[in-house]
Amino acid sequence: MNFNHRQFDSYLVVFLLFSSPAVGMPGQVEHETPSLVMLNFRPEVTNPADGDGRTLLVTWRRQPDKVDTVEIQRKEADSVRWTKVGEVQPDDTSFVDRYSADAAYPLKPGVSCRYRIALKSAGSQSVSRPSDAIAAKPRWFNFRRANVFLLVALYFGSVLWFIERAKREKSLFIRKIAGMEAMDEALGRATEMGRPALYIPGIMDVDNIQTIASMVILTEVARKTAGLDVKLIVPLNRAFVVPLAEESVKEGYLRSGRPDAYNPDDIRYLSDEQFAFTAGVTGIMNREQTAAHFFLGAFFAESLIVSEVGYSTGAIQIAGTANIHQLPFFVVACEWRATTR
To answer: What total number of domains does the chain contain?
Structure first.
């Protein structure tokens, strides 16, 4: 069969079209071609110190060649195609590959993969050798926060040491708080005068830590008043605090060996309204002529009113609160403050 030049050219064009390599998918890089220059370095890939199993840190040394962009490429260990995962400035020497559900080719936690660095400039491209295969895995220990671990270990170690020391020794020195020590003096005066004592555990609900701490002190005050046969009045402005206060006072009377002396009518719910409660407390002070006042808990604007009225009755007053903005009022109107410095 004879072919003319026109037919030969047509067959040659068809052959070249079908023999050319297929066009790659978006975001992917084709197989190595002779036009790529292989550089004599490889990136280092590690799991970050604070890694959560969804990130990998890629680092490399800066290359002396002048390039326009630095491209980071990744491929899974069992794949042959390289995927572009990021692009950084020529001066950068690190890149963090993070998992993202929106990414076209996201990093798969637990799957081994390799990385390489592509240096691109006008009309040329050079790539590094592939890194060692590595998989993104979470770390058991974040070494960047080792200082926090040491502080926590030191704290709990000291707690355990003091517990063991307290078990071995019969007595340990605990610095006394003047306001707490003055409770015996205040109750002693109430006993001598034959007048009641008044205890206010603040105006907050049972979910406040100051109220809970005040209940512990209330139990001890109730124990002492029961032993001295002093009437203890506990006005409250939160309904949920009533059963807690009742049990605390009852426990104090039980510890003193006088459970029959407990009177539930002395635990008095007045009002949830701040100043209605304040008016009720000042009324009790004037009617009952209480001789010892204990203000221990969370207080606010009512602190100055109750302490001033209490001062006018001539009672010994002991106050303590964690609300530092109310401490000045207690300082000027009360004899003792159950606070620490």
So the answer is: 3
